[in-house]
Amino acid sequence: xxxxxxxxxxxxxxxxxxxxxxxxxxxxxxxxxxxxxxxxxxxxxxxxxxxxxxxxxxxxxxxxxxxxxxxxxxxxxxxxxxxxxxxxxxxxxxxxxxxxxxxxxxxxxxxxxxxxxxxxxxxxxxxxxxxxxxxxxxxxxxxxxxxxxxxxxxxxxxxxxxxxxxxxxxxxxxxxxxxxxxxxxxxxxxxxxxxxxxxxxxxxxxxxxxxxxxxxxxxxxxxxxxxxxxxxxxxxxxxxxxxxxxxxxxxxxxxxxxxxxxxxxxxxxxxxxxxxxxxxxxxxxxxxxxxxxxxxxxxxxxxxxxxxxxxxxxxxxxxxxxxxxxxxxxxxxxxxxxxxxxxxxxxxxxxxxxxxxxxxxxxxxxxxxxxxxxxxxxxxxxxxxxxxxxxxxxxxxxxxxxxxxxxxxxxxxxxxxxxxxxxxxxxxxxxxx
Length: 433
Known about the structure:
It comes from Candidatus Caldatribacterium saccharofermentans. This is ATP-binding protein. By secondary structure, this protein is of the alpha/beta class. It contains 15 helices and eleven strands. It has a five-stranded parallel beta sheet with strand order 6-9-10-5-11, with helices on both faces. Helix 3 crosses helix 12 and helix 12 (365-383) crosses helix 14 (406-422). The relative contact order is 0.12.
């Protein structure tokens, strides 16, 4: 093949499937070539699939250069992109919490209280409940709690299916290891507790003693499968294990497991306990059949009474009685600190009685302005767009006048600054109509 033919349309190439052909044209900077094969077939082919076509791509290639980015710039861009979705990156929650000083104080007092182990967070949709729970979760982790989190979902993790809820909590389990200060997970926690002599009498975790390398046992105790016991090579391999049942009435089994983790966190691993956050708890109302609501309420009550070490009220709840009877509470204290996030419209608010509550009211204008100014600084860092060119006051006045909830306020702020940046020749009145 001549050199000229390899660089220009008309050059000959070879494909291992279609054979020889002639290059007609290119696209995508030369990474794809339209080839008329000798068989009559004409097709776009990726450059790397062709032999003797590499030099042809040089005609289309351009040198790409990227400006250097600082770590702060990347962090700012990551936050701005999250704001477009109305969320905040988990590791930035502390830096982006405004106007909640009273609520922060209440949370700290609750974390320090010995006898109040359940907290209710109430707020309208978009009021920042999830953001606030993430803030509390981070605070609890830093203050020495093991933590876990579940976003309740009518299909994936409903209250009427305790096993699914437990499975989500196990996957999201985190704690700071006392050994090295690193963030560790559920398996690390159990191995650490077992190594220190815990769970010899625990009905489920004791089967991991001396067998922490058995992946089948881990999948079983983490409730990764719907079946109550793992399947081995024969039906006898794991027949001795107690069942992890997927019944709605099995609240006692999963409260027992969670209270075992809380007790071990406090008494064995020397943490302050196990903090659990239940987001979107109002989805307990989303049921098809009435019995699903009854099972869900039973699990909700069981969690509350287990966390508060209330033996008397636990006796009145439904339980799964297959095989050996499993109590709700492993040992006292349970070591659990539980937060539920509800909307004020949830029909189960009457079930929560006199439990401590934090109501997230709409943010005041001063707090919104503080949040907006923080967004402006991040936007400037991310896109090198000086704040003075953004007419901050004008944008803020127009957005806050819409009386949107916090999530839409954050999304609207970023969208407004995008519009101003892309249309500098237009006035705010034209852009933000």
